Every structure is written in C-alpha cells, then in structure tokens.
UniProtKB/TrEMBL annotation:
Domain of life of the organism encoding this protein: Bacteria
Protein name as catalogued: Non-homologous end joining protein Ku
Pfam families with a match to the protein in the record: Ku
Keyword DNA repair attributed: yes
Residue span, Ku domain: 55-184
Biological role: With LigD forms a non-homologous end joining (NHEJ) DNA repair enzyme, which repairs dsDNA breaks with reduced fidelity. Binds linear dsDNA with 5'- and 3'- overhangs but not closed circular dsDNA nor ssDNA. Recruits and stimulates the ligase activity of LigD.
Annotated keywords: DNA damage, DNA recombination, DNA repair, DNA-binding
A GO BP entry: double-strand break repair via nonhomologous end joining
Gene3D superfamilies documented for this protein: 2.40.290.10
PANTHER family membership: NON-HOMOLOGOUS END JOINING PROTEIN KU
Stretch list, region Disordered: 228-250
UniProt cross-references to InterPro entries, sorted A to Z: DNA_bd_Ku70/Ku80, Prok_Ku, SPOC-like_C_dom_sf
Amino acid sequence: MARRTYWKGYLKLSLVTCPVAMMPATTESEKIRFHTLNRKTGNRIVSRYADAVSGKPVDEDDEVKAYQTGEDQYVILEDEELDSVALESTRTIDIDVFVPRDSIEWIWYDTPHYMMPDDPVGEEAFSVIRDAMAATDTVGISRLVMYRRERAVMLEPRGRGIVVWTLRYGDEVRNPDDYFGGIEDVPVDKKLMPLLKKLIEERTHPWDPSMVKDPVQDRLLDIITAKKKGRKKPAKAKAEAAAEPDQPSNVINIMDALRKSISSDGKAGKR
C-alpha cells in the first residue's frame, strides 16, 4: 500500500536542516462508523449551526470564534487576531531543547506520528539527528501547528525513524495527589506476595496486538453482514453473553482467593 503523507516540512537542529514527512502512527479507518438517516425517507441527515435564541440557521460567513467572559457575555476574536498568535512557521520543527528520555511521564503523551526523511539528500542529516538522540538517550522538544492549534511535540528516535508525540499542556493533566493522596498506606501481609507473584507469572504472555482486539466491532460486522444477506442476526444465548461478576462480600479472605485463582489457572493451562 502506498504511503499517505499527512504533513510535510523540515526538521531543524541549529544549522542542520532536512526535509521530512509525517503521518499518524495510529488509524481509525477500520472502525465501523454510522450515519444518521431519516427513517421515513432513508436519506442522510445534515447538521447545521443554528442561533441558540432564534433557532434560525446561521450562514458560514456569520460564524465567529468567541471566548465567554460571563453569563451571555462573550469576546469575539477575528481570524486575523487568532493568526497573529500562531507560530511564525508551521512547516519547520525546530528542536530547541533536549531532555532525558525517561523524564517525561506517559500521561503527557497525546498522539503519536511517524516521521521519516522526505528526500534522499536529507537522509544523512535526518540519521545524524536521530542517532545522536538515541546515543544520548534524550528526546527533542519543539512546537508545531497541528490539528488547527499550536502544540508542544516530543521527538523520540525509534528504529530507523522518529516518533513525534504531541504533548498535553500543563493545564490538561490533573494532579495525581488530588486523587491518590487520600489512599492510606495499608501494610500488606508478606505471605500474600509470593502467591500473587505466582498468579502474575501464570498469566504473563508475550505481547500480541490481538490482546486489545475490539470484540464489539466484530459482533457489529456479523450483524451488518447478516443484514446485507437479508437475514436477521440470531440472538445470543445467555451463556455467551458476558456474565457480570458476583458482588463481592464485605469480608474477603485474600489468601483463599489467591489459592483458588492459582489452582483454577493451573487447571486451565493444562487443558
């Protein structure tokens, strides 16, 4: 399949510059998507912006961006005002700082993209920047306009290419202490740890993408295929439906539960 390029521009480090191309590392093209139809006519329904008070449709030329300052109070921002605060260049990723690779926690990562050289002449410069980051175990930090807004990005060497992660802004990440701070440090019975480790070992397998396969999509495809053939999808038997776990009692013997879990896992493995 031919490679589809999402973004083209330049990667720059001081005086070293090379043309690069970039595309999203993930895709949702295989996901089932639905359209909303008019049941009576079978035609698709078109959505339009309407005035919240009058209910009348609004022409595209009359649609403007605004920031709410109070109840029913807004400050309107024109397109030229929004453009004035954007980056001077939207086509150059200028790496201005490097940080240790493991210093950025996963929670800051947003969306990954694959970056590769876009010209044979620039492959050497691309390779030098990539290999230097790998050798120093660092990642580059820069800024770029993507998805209609300016974003901080992290450049991480990966194999022969570079993965460009968009990063979340500081006000988008909640402080974990607000949620974990109230959890008490309960002492754990040392006898439980060997049993729990054994249970984890029995359930440890090499990573496989099928572990995160979407079963709902597979079932929807079955229904769609059946309807295309003009037959109804038979109802699932109760036994096939995902059974909800029994409600746990207030008092749980963790030791007994772990032993039963290990025993059942061992029997399942033998089968």
